[in-house]
Amino acid sequence: MTVQPIRLFGDPVLRTPADDVADFDKELRKLVKDLIETMQDEGGAGLAAPQLGVGLRVFSFDVDDVVGHIVNPVLSFPDEEEQDGPEGCLSIPGIYVDTKRRQNVVANGFNEFGDPVQLVGTGMMSRCVQHETDHLDGVLFLDRLDSAARKDAMRQIRTADWYDAGKPPTIKENPHSSGIFGSGLFSSGR
């Protein structure tokens, strides 16, 4: 297990839809451990593989003392009830904006061994599951904001210490370079 650097807003991997996991092997189990350790080290409620530069459909969560992960999640919503509250992202540090989400969610997928799992979430867990699944689709929570809130969030991002609009992504060696993770190269964040 290793804490990995988190990709920041502007990194193209955050806007690229992730591929389904096909191989439930040692590489995937290492990725899951890296996701959980990095998420907990950063104090986050969730972390998706693209945030570590890995384009696979897997994320970890830590909400209300429930820690876990889900691979290849498919979401359904048992009702139309909504919630509106502050949402942030480890890839957009320090920016929190009220964001509408569904109050209740059911996520069907798999664990790291390929066994079917179902996660039923409400409130904060539901928000987390929807947020992380969005990451797997190349969607950021900023995309869910109305135009005025998005404009304000973008202003905050442009003035944030971590944001560097002039620095292009660099190429680094992927720590998950063999097996299901592809060629071993990816563009890094800042």
Automatic annotation (TrEMBL):
Its cofactor is Fe(2+). It catalyses: N-terminal N-formyl-L-methionyl-[peptide] + H2O = N-terminal L-methionyl-[peptide] + formate. The active site is at 132. Binds 1 Fe(2+) ion. Its EC number is 3.5.1.88. One of its GO terms (biological process) is translation. Fe cation binds at residues 89, 131, 135. GO terms for molecular function: metal ion binding; peptide deformylase activity. Belongs to the polypeptide deformylase family. Removes the formyl group from the N-terminal Met of newly synthesized proteins. Requires at least a dipeptide for an efficient rate of reaction. N-terminal L-methionine is a prerequisite for activity but the enzyme has broad specificity at other positions. This is Peptide deformylase.
